[in-house]
Write a structure and sequence with these properties.
single chain, alpha+beta, Jelly Rolls, Arc Repressor Mutant, subunit A, 2 domains, six-stranded antiparallel beta sheet, five-stranded antiparallel beta sheet, 11 helices
Amino acid sequence: MIFEVQALGSPLNEFIESIFYFKDFMPEHTIERVVPTGHIFILFELDGIPRNTFDKESLEPNAVFQKVWVSGMHKNYLSISAHQKSEMLVIQLKPYGGFPVFKFPIHELNDRVIPAEEILGKEILELRANILTQKTPKDKMTTAENWLHKQMDFNGAPPKEITDLLHQLLEKPFTEHQSILQLYPKTQKHLIAQFKKFLGLTPKVLHRIIRFNDILQQIQHQKSINWSQITYLSGYADQSHFIKEFKEFSGFNPQEFILQDFHNKEANFFPLDPKG
């Protein structure tokens, strides 16, 4: 399998988490669960294979996506298809990277996966066609990078007080959530409106997602896990609250998660049919 990541310079790296490309992905499953990470994605399929999203309960296909699509901010898990010999290019936006690209309130994309041309017009399909003509992974990613430089309104970044507060949420534990919000110089109502506009999610939901992903990192490849300690140190009211939130974001309770050996997989993608 080929997997490459494009190194990005300023100012693009302030808004884009990564541009990555892979080819000849050969999963041992056909459906995988993706947990929310606080990012927006623009996804280009380069292999002609349609992708599906699935109903959370029945795992029946509920939508089909081809060519290019956008996955907005999600508040809980998403089940997607995985395919043999996959080839894709993915643009992963930082939490506040969506507004400069799409130029409309980001909460409009919450919990949605949308064909990209509905948002970005035929130009995004022309970009995919151009990417397909490029011979090397670097050329493909550079083509996407050049498009981003033209597409993005770098003046569309959120105000500094919003980015400062976001960095506090990213760096500090959820136990300090209320004290972080008190740093904001305006009203809490104004803060929530600004977060929805520029980041899609409210500060509390985003901080909960950050906390959950931190927990996944903590338990990854661990032979012994003290759930009570994690519950306490992560700022949950009690273990039932922790279990409820863990299931909300992953679809599994912690015990099921470990029994499925997901803590030894990638931190954000979990195969639902490993024999598929």
